[in-house]
From TrEMBL:
Quaternary state and interactors: Component of the replication restart primosome.
Organism, as annotated: Ruegeria spongiae
Protein name: Replication restart protein PriA
Cofactor: binding comment: Binds 2 zinc ions per subunit.
Binding-site residues, Zn(2+) 2: 451, 454, 469, 472
Amino acid sequence: MRPCLDDPGYFDEGALVAVLTAQPLDRLLDYKAPEGGCFQGAFVEVPLGPRKVLGVVWGPGRGDYDRSKIRSVIRVLDVAPMRAEMQSFLGRAADYTLTPMSAMLRLATRAPGLGDPPSMRKIYRLGETTPDRMTEARTRVLDVLRDYGGLAFTLKELAEMAGVTTSVVKGLAKLGAVREEDSPRDLPFPHLDPDLPGKALTEDQRAGADALRVAIRKGGYGTTLLKGVTGSGKTEVYLEAVAEALRLGRQALVLLPEIALTAEFLTRVEARFGARPAEWHSGATLTERRRIWRMVGQGDAQLVVGARSALFLPFQNLGLIIVDEEHDTSYKQEDGVLYNARDMAVLRASICGARVVLASATPSLESWANAEAGKYDRLELTARFGAAVLPEMRAIDMRAEKMPGASWISPSLRRAVVNRLEKGEQSLLFINRRGYAPVTLCRACGQQIGCDHCDARMVEHRFLKRLMCHQCGETKPIPETCPSCQAEDRLAPVGPGIERLAEEAEAAFPDAKIAVLSSDMFGSARALKAKIVEIAEGDTDIVIGTQLVAKGHNFPNLTLVGVIDADLGLQGSDLRAAERTFQLMRQVAGRAGRAERPGTALLQSFQPEHPVIRAILSGDETGFWKAEAAERQAAGVPPFGRMAGIVLSGSDAGQVFDLGNAMARNDMAIRQIGAQVFGPAPAPIARIRGRHRVRLLVKAPKGAALQEAISGWIAPLRLKGDLRLSVDIDPQSF
Ligand code: ADP
Ligand code: ZN
């Protein structure tokens, strides 16, 4: 179904072309090329039944239908055609993730309104006058325009965002309060100058930057693992790689795991290159996304900074992809098309001949193994920049601490915080649990309050004054009587969450200025960014944070990190738990002592002799990775074997299990490649939004043709009723 395409062909008017649409049909459709012909890769509008849909000319048509019934392409859209290289990337990504091509095309055409001829579009921005008569609708339109600064919108967008009819906008335009303009061209991005003087690099950093420059100049695909302790200047080094790509006239893409990180990064790009790059993320306005999509496609955006979906932008001449914090689990897309952006970056680069830089202080075991095997080049920065030294790390043995009931800050940790307060330095208390308490328990009957739709406990959020399910987001008021036994006032919070820890800290350190950083406590990414800047400027004594603070922020005045529950990640049977805990603890500890003052990290643990805790404390990374690798090798799991999860879901638990059992019994296709099926077992989240979920795990030897076998296995299935099946290649937990 996917012809292999090297040279972009040209099709004369009337020639048969195969068109890929974003409609859920599992095949290409034949059409006749329109008047004037079309190129392979052209974005086109085609008739489908009574509708007109967007498509891409994928290759020559097959002509196995009645030719007289084949319809013509309606028109070719006024955007750069999709390059053969992008077609092949989407095809290979689809094969790898076992995703239908239509879904891949949707990922690649996220910019709405694609193909409106620009000359026909009017755009609307804030005008100079204020109308004499203001209505509520008019106020809303002007508010939207003011909120988005200088941005312009199309008529439909603006009306939709303000929740008004288009005639309100038109009326304002007539009065001059809104300016109507032709938009023949997208606004260009300011030019980034790679030759502005960068920072003077240290010897280590220079060696790394030189090696990357040479590799980029040489051209062709290659991946470099850039490992360096937090604060060693990885960002400085890869910015020099970006500079080199720009000098060669090639485009660069920097992927960041967390939107909250981008503000700081954009400022650094501006300092280095004199202007801000294109910023791609789901929060961007439609107009902005469309602009970036087009500019990237014309080769006019030199550098894109963005979230994982930026990988699907139509780069014309991509020379470099940076995956910062490459070990971060948020690179795995867990909804819709299940892909890992790190792996897709490598795939895309190998097709278009680009360099990939995977940067991390604590690389994933996958990348570590690839570097060990010589598949990736390796660069290492061992020292922190300047006077900064790595924090001293110690465990607080919780078995020896006197803990008053319902408290989580041990006397030892408390003394360390007081000491920092006296010196005017910042402390960070880290707990990886949102909300007030993870469990709400009835003291009369012992029942815990669960979600009505999921197999999960409801978490109390005092800040929101509600109970919330972290699986499906459902909330309900905090009840006064127990839903099971109706006892009054017997419900009690059990265990610590970040809000409860904040409460304890406020009582313990009444004069300290405390900031709480948890993603759910901020209404917008902007508010969160503002808070982070405030902390970095030193305006806070104690930061209390979840996972969010573990990543990449620079807090120069922070000298103490206290981890409330270092054992948390070690429970459960997930084979990746040790790796995650190791990475997270090292990342969090890395927040301390980033400037002149040395830092200390204290880990509260009930099992300080646990091998993972010992490896964290000693910083013996090589030892840790080797031990982890040996265990995984023995178990035959990634990166030394291959895995896939098949998740079945449906509203009827019995039906879902029946299907799982039938599949497990009928596993010829899987056994043929020497692989095994495990399960069915309840999926890691056994029920979401009322749907029961079970999982089959497939474990295959390293070189096995896993995708083909799974395709063969699931192809004959006919899913009854509301049963659904999704395949997760390389699942995050196993
Ligand atoms: P990493 O990405 O490895 O965590 P960064 O690149 O963020 O490290 O560097 C940590 C801090 O040290 C940043 O504030 C950065 O600006 C500063 N820094 C690193 N290298 C240099 C250098 N050669 N000259 C000046 N400042 C530097
Ligand atoms: Zn739920």
